[in-house]
Structure formats: structure tokens, C-alpha cells
Amino acid sequence: MVNWWQGDPILKAMDVATVYPEDYGAVCAAFGAAQAYLEGAEADGFPAHMCGYARNCLGYTARMIELGEIPPEAPMGGMPQPSLLLASGALCDARYKWFQALGRYLDAPLWVLELPHPGVKEGLMEGAGEGNIYFIAQQLREFISFLEKLLGRRMDWGRLDETVDSTMEMNRWWHRANELRRARPCPMHSRDFWSSMPASLYMANDPGETAGLYRQMYDEIKSRVDNKIGALKAPERYRLAFLELPPWHSLDFFNQLAERGWNFVIESWAYHPPRPLDLDRVSDPLERLARYSYHWLTGYYPKANQAEEWWGYFAYPYLEYVRDYQCDGVVLHPLLSCRTATNHLMMVRDRLMKKLKVPSLVIEGDIVDLKLFDPARALSQAEAFEETMDHYKKLRKEAGLGW
Amino acid sequence: MNKVKIFTAGIDLGSTMTKVLILDGEGKSRAQVTGATGAEHRRLANKVMAQALGQAGLSLEEIGYIVATGYGRVNVPFADCQVTELTCHARGVSHLFPSARTAIDIGGQDAKGLKIRDGKLVDFVMNDRCAAGTGRFLEVTAETLGLRLEELGELSLKAASKVEIGSTCTIFAQAEMVALLSQGRPLAEILAGLHQAIASRVVKMVTGLKIEADVVFTGGVAQNAAVVQAIKEKLGHDVLVPDEPLFTGALGAALLAREIALKCLANGKTIPDKERRLEEARLYEDY
């Protein structure tokens, strides 16, 4: 399970390969294979409003157990029987019970990592941040003890040190690549972001090698910026942010919008890597991981507080994104099976309108469940939204907002 | 083709009704016709168009530009372009009521709220994919009670009081209605409760747009006087209703067609032309 660079570098340093059911949920949706797994999970009694990734995973697992092997129809070779389940308490409330249930299906041990993210002002009190970092580092130490017992071998601390450095290097290049997307025309569309994101978020096999690939990607994007080559074949008429994960089953929707000149230039910050953090002086690799993950989730707190946007600490980063990437509009995609991804979006809509005069289009859907998304209706609303974006572009110019 | 006259047409292929409106060279309505969309008629927009042309005394070739709108707009082979119904409704409303800032439209299967400035659509909201509280809801109500659709509003306005209806879900409300009838509640009071429930649902939805007067109410459901009354009560002020609320989208489409045609002529260009035939739409599965 996605663990925001806490547990995976430790697993990699101990030669444990990781498979992510969220990522596989997106694969199943994109391959058109998810509906059968969703129905399987619902037949087992999981409610239809539960997380689409979780239902896909549980439905897939039930089928794998029923067959006694990886289901033959499973896209991209399926997911294997795991020897360990690693869950994370960060951001998502479905994870605890999802992985508990999965543990019962698979008869596999379960470990849960926490990533504190105090959504209250007290999180900025003196000593609170350091206390949280100490807590994270301590639980990573306990996780290593658990792994050593499970695997019957000791952690190679020198290797962990290198893996942690490679992880940060990987994300540094990925972050730099995304920074280039401020250019006009934007050289990289959100679809490319979503295709490339898993190597960072779900950590492909070797972070050092991934760092090299992201660097190559940076070079390619830089060359496109230098030569003013945009991501679209059509001229870039509108620059947009897409908030929350896309409907993986209906990605052609973005192609239709691209034909109209819609360039999606930035996405939800939760799927972006942390902004680079100088941790050269921190010698303990677990403390580096703790500081890094905590920075990813809470790094915006001081600026949100300074801007008197504390109440919207989860929404605040979008004020920066939309201004920095000069977006004409924002598409909000409330995921009907995910509260965490959805509950701040109306706050974002309100703040962007009040502070930046940037309108939002709400298109409800889901990451996996095809039944919850209506592409024809979404396209119809998108066409009408062009007039709204034109109107607010004029208002922003009158207000001297600069784009 | 005689381009000087610049007759234009809007065709609104809605989920329940297909509406065609033809404007003359001065932008005045020359013909307006409705027909049921239905499953079979989805491909027969040509028939409604032929009736409208007959009413106007024109041939298809004499129409300078045609804009199709509504959920079935892609199924109009003789249209010159397609424009979303949200944009067309905003245009239609602004034309009829230049002071309009907010519009509420309840059609056969959807409900929408529009925020309008200077004739432009600046924000909007739509119901989710459930048809609760739309025209379909009223159709089912009429069927359940053995009434004609047109009778619902009039009967409801005779109610001395109204019952509380808990849901605008078509299925749940139907069951609730049957239960209330069996309890002996007067029909008029049940209908008044249903109309209140529709108004409550749509006003809550549109409130997110920050409703500003003047408010205009359009769509087929705006023909129901009881819903109009209930919306006024919920809003706490008057709402404007066009004489022909069903045609607002088609009117907007015809006006947009006129704008496009006039802009071409003003720029010294010819109006985009194509060979037109009043043929049946070929749906995706036919290809």
C-alpha cells in the first residue's frame, strides 16, 4: 500500500519486492477488468460506496483464492500471493480495515505504519513537529525489527542509507521535471504525469535507476520548453489543473478535451513528490525518511498559516499551484468512493474563486468504478465551462492578477 | 441559398422532447414545434424539423445555419454545429429576460442552475445522474395516480395544506404516495407535497451558485404552476417564467446560429455551408 516513501525504501534495502494494490486498481480500471472484481467484492458483502481500489483488490483476491492461482484474465500478470502486507495510516481511512480484511483472505502478516498529519494549528507548536518525526523514526525502527524476525536476516544499514538517498534523488528529478510545466505552452499533460507517477509514488524496483529515467524525462521536457513545444497537437487554449485521481477507466475523455485545446498542467499535490529538502546533515537514514515523509505532508503548514488559510491546510497548496501554473480553470473530480480525496474539494473551489478568480468544474466519478462516471455528460459540461473560463479570464485581467 | 434572409434554426434534442425553433431574418420566431424524443425518435429529429419547416413555409436550404443542442445533439445530421445545452439555455434566458442573473431549468431527466452575466454563462450546477425531482418524476407520479401530466399542477394548487414527502427518489416517492393514499390523505395535498419536494431539491442545488435576482425558471417542468409557486416560496421572491419555457434551449441554439451567421457575414466570409438532407440520424451502432 502506498506509504509515502516511509516503508518501501526499507523493504527495498532488504530485497523485498513490493506490489501496490492501488496501482493495480488503476491498471484493472484502465484495462476494463475492474467491474468483475468490484462485483466480486460486493458479492462478498463489501458496500458499493467503499473505496474502489479496496473493492477491486478484495474482489481480485477472492477470485485468486477461489481459483488457487492468479486469475488468467488479470491484466499485466496480476498480483501474486504476498508474504507480508504493509499498510499505511496516512491520509486514507479505508486502509486499516481494507488490509485487515485482506490479511484474513491471504493469511499473511500485516504491519501498519503511521504518518501523523495534525490538521490543527497546534501542529505548529514548538516541539510538535520534532515529536512527530521522533515517533515516525521510532516506528520505522520497530518495523525493521519485525522484518528482521520475519525474514531471518539483518538489515544492511549501509544499503538502506544508499536507498534512502536514491529515493530522494529520484523524487528531486521528478519534482524538477514537473516544475518545467509552468511554461507556456505546457510541455507535459496530466496524462503523462499519471503515467509516470507510479515509479515515484509506488516506487519501481530500483530508485537509483528511476532517478536516471526521471532525469532523462527532465531533459526531454526542458528541450520541449526551450523549443516551445506544447503537449497538445492543438493550440493550448486553456490551462487547467485536475484535482484528484482521474477516472482511469475513461482516459479518452482527456483526449477529447485536448482536441479542444485543454491542457492539464498540474494535478493534486498528494501525488506529487515533496519539494526538495536538504537533509545532508542528518546521518540516520530513518530520521531522513521520517523528516522527508513528514515534510511531504505538512510542509505547507507554515505558509498556509502565514497566508491566513490555515483552515484549508489541505486545500492551500492549490492556491500556489493555480497561480504558479497560471490555470484558467480547475476540474474537480470528487471520487464518490473516497472521502479523503473528496472532502476538501469544495473548499478548494471556494478559495480559488475568492482569492484568484479561477472557476472550477465539478465532475463526479470514481477512480475504478465505471458506473459512477458519465463521460458524455462530463464532456457536455466541459464545453459549457469554456465560456465560464473566458469570463473569469477577463475578470482576472481587470483585477490585475496577471493571467 | 438566399443568405440575405439568414433564417436560422435551433434544435434541442432533449431526453423527453425534441424542440425546433426557427428565427426569421430579424431574429423573430417564425416557427416552433415539439415532438417526443423517445427511444425510437432519437434518430428522427428530421421529422420534427420537417414539421417546423412546414410551419415556417421554408425549405431546409433556406435555413442559413442550424445549431443542435441537448443530450442528443450529436444525432442531428443536418445541423451545422453542436453546442451544449447549458450554453444554449443561458443564451435563450438572456434573450427573453436581459435582467436575468440566475436560471433554473428542469427538463425531462435533468435539472440545472445557471449563473448568467451579460448573456454569458459564468457558472452552473447540474443534478447528479439520478432523475429524482425532474420531469420524469412528475410523469411517474401522473401514471401512478391515473392523471394527465397537465392536471398535476392545477390540482395541487387546490390543496388546503400539504403533506411532507420525504424523498424525491422516483421509486421511493411512488411508494410513499401509495401509502399516503391508503391512509386517506387528499390527493391535492399529496401532490402539493410532491411539488414542494421538487422545489426544495432544486433550490438547494442552485443555492450553491449564490442565487441572484432576477431568477428565471425554464424547461418543461416550468409549465407546472404548482412547481413555479413552490419555487417562489422556497426562494422567497418572484421568478420569471417565459411564455414557452420548453423552447428556451432551442431559442438559445437558434440565436447562437444567428450570431455565427452574422459574424461570418460581418467578417466578409460566407456562412459555412454544407449539403443538407433531412435524413434520419445514424447512431453509433449503425456504423
Would you write up a description of this structure?
The complex is a heterodimer of chains A (403) and B (287). Chain A is of the alpha/beta class. Chain A has a single domain (8-152, 231-398), classed as Rossmann fold, CATH 3.40.50. In chain A, 51% of the residues lie in helices and 7% in strands. In chain A, α2 (21-30) crosses α4 (52-67), α7 (157-179) packs parallel to α12 and α14 crosses α15 (345-356). The longest helix of chain A has 24 residues, at 128-151. Chain A is globular. The model of chain A has no long low-confidence stretch (mean pLDDT 94). Chain B has 287 residues and is α/β, with parallel strands linked by helices. Chain B contains 8 helices and 9 strands. In chain B, the strands form 2 sheets. A 5-stranded mixed beta sheet of chain B has the order 3-2-1-4-5. A 4-stranded mixed beta sheet of chain B has the order 8-7-6-9. In chain B, β1 (7-13) and β2 (17-23) form a beta hairpin. The radius of gyration of chain B is 20 Å and the shape is globular. The mean pLDDT of chain B is 89. Classes of the chains: A alpha/beta (403), B alpha/beta (287). Chains A and B meet through α16 of A and α2 and β8 of B.
Strand-helix topology:
The complex is a heterodimer of chains A (403) and B (287).
Chain A: H1 8-13, H2 21-30, H3 34-43, H4 52-67, E1 85-88, H5 95-106, E2 110-113, H6 128-151, H7 157-179, H8 190-196, H9 198-201, H10 207-226, E3 238-243, H11 252-259, E4 262-267, H12 285-298, H13 301-306, H14 316-324, E5 329-332, H15 345-356, E6 360-362, H16 375-398
Parallel strand pairs in A: 1-2, 3-4, 3-5, 5-6
Helix pairs in contact in A: 2-4, 3-4, 4-5, 6-12, 7-10, 7-12, 14-15
Chain B: E1 7-13, E2 17-23, E3 29-36, H1 45-56, E4 63-69, E5 81-82, H2 85-96, E6 102-106, E7 111-117, E8 120-126, H3 135-145, H4 151-156, H5 170-182, H6 187-207, E9 215-218, H7 225-235, H8 248-266
Parallel strand pairs in B: 1-4, 4-5, 6-9
Antiparallel strand pairs in B: 1-2, 2-3, 6-7, 7-8
